[in-house]
Design goal:
This protein has 2 domains: 6-199, 2-enoyl-CoA Hydratase, Chain A, domain 1, CATH 3.90.226.10; 202-252, no CATH class. The chain has helices spanning 30-43, 68-71, 76-94, 111-118, 145-153, 155-164, 170-176, 188-200, 204-218, 227-238, 242-252; strands spanning 6-11, 14-19, 51-56, 61-63, 100-104, 107-109, 121-125, 129-131, 167-169, 181-183. The two termini are 27 Å apart. It contains 11 helices and 10 strands. The protein is an alpha/beta fold. Strand 1 (6-11) and strand 2 form a beta hairpin. The strands form 2 sheets. A 6-stranded mixed β-sheet has the order 1-2-3-5-7-10, with helices on both faces. The mean pLDDT is 95. The structure holds coenzyme A (COA). The site of coenzyme A has 16 residues, from helix 2 and strand 6.
Length: 262
């Protein structure tokens, strides 16, 4: 795959995606979104990849937002298309069939905060800064920020951050529930890998069903119309997987399970 704005690497079954536009603090231009979409699509059913960690290149920024220079003269129609495509990609990340962790290594502003929020788990370095500063530009978040921020931190604080455009540091982001952990820059990747390895050791089908069920809560009940029903259906479906047989058999025989993701 030819990638201009992303660097990817696979080590020990983890796909590492680095947003690689350091001169622009890793701002997300449209091509970067397209590449992200392609990479997630490519590895969805690749058994060598059991989880994804996303970070930004350099020490200063995860992603400093959508690329302002690119959309400054957009028409309403172009803006709508940009937002729609971003939504498609970020939805794909949110619903991904493998765990996705954001290693937030600096600025996570605008589209950067939205990208981190689309991931399943967020770990921030102490120097990370979060915010949705779009109102400073006379626009609103267009990649799901008005929804996912409410889901993660609640309506009151979300409205404040979205309406003031204020940025917050990593410690406050953790206090609000926007990130799961805050660690030193050196500990950032090891912490993400520790969490990822723990998840990878579980039944992969079950893990992907957890993601579907949790997201169903925020998506009008998912494909069966009610998120409790989604859980009931997914729970039943677990019983037809080899992972279920392996997990329960291993427990009853007092040994470690060896899941195949089937
Ligand atoms: N889009 C396009 N370019 C961006 C960018 C963005 N979202 N964020 C940063 N850059 C570029 C800057 O224009 C600058 O380019 P230059 O060197 O060619 O002038 C370069 O990245 C470095 O940014 P700079 O502003 O000089 O760094 P800083 O340390 O002084 O400030 C930020 C860092 C993140 C606070 C500041 O860049 C900023 O506010 N960025 C925009 C954030 C934003 O509004 N995001 C939401 C967009 S919808």
């Amino acid at each position: 795959m030819q990638l201009e704005n992303l660097a990817i690497d696979i080590r020990e079954n983890i796909l590492y995606i680095t947003i690689n536009r350091p001169k622009n603090l890793n701002a997300l231009n449209i091509k970067t979104i397209v590449e992200l979409d392609e990479v997630f699509e490519e590895y969805m059913y690749n058994d060598d990849v059991k989880g994804v960690i996303i970070t930004g290149s350099g020490e200063k920024s995860f992603v400093a937002g959508a690329d302002i220079s690119e959309f400054a003269d957009f028409t309403p129609e172009q803006g709508r298309t940009m937002s729609e495509n971003g939504h498609d990609t970020f939805d794909k990340i949110e619903m991904y069939n493998k765990p996705v962790i954001a290693a937030v290594n600096g600025y996570a502003l605008g589209g950067g905060c939205e990208l981190a929020m689309a991931c399943h788990i967020r770990v921030a370095s102490e120097n990370a800064i979060f915010g949705q500063p779009e109102v400073n530009l006379g626009i609103i978040p267009g990649y799901g920020g008005t929804q996912r921020l409410v889901e993660l931190i609640g309506k009151g604080k979300a409205l404040e951050l979205l309406m003031t455009g204020d940025s917050i540091n990593a410690a406050l982001a953790k206090e609000l529930g926007l990130v799961n952990y805050v660690v030193s820059p050196e500990e950032l990747m090891p912490k993400c890998e520790e969490i990822m390895k723990k998840i990878i050791g579980k039944g992969p089908v079950a893990v992907s069903k957890v993601v579907q069920c949790v997201n169903a809560h925020f998506r009008g009940g998912g494909y069966v119309g009610d998120s409790y029903q989604t859980e009931i259906t997914q729970f039943g479906q677990c019983m037809e997987t080899e992972d279920f047989v392996e997990g329960t058999t291993a427990f009853l025989n007092k040994r470690k399970p060896e899941f195949k993701g089937k």
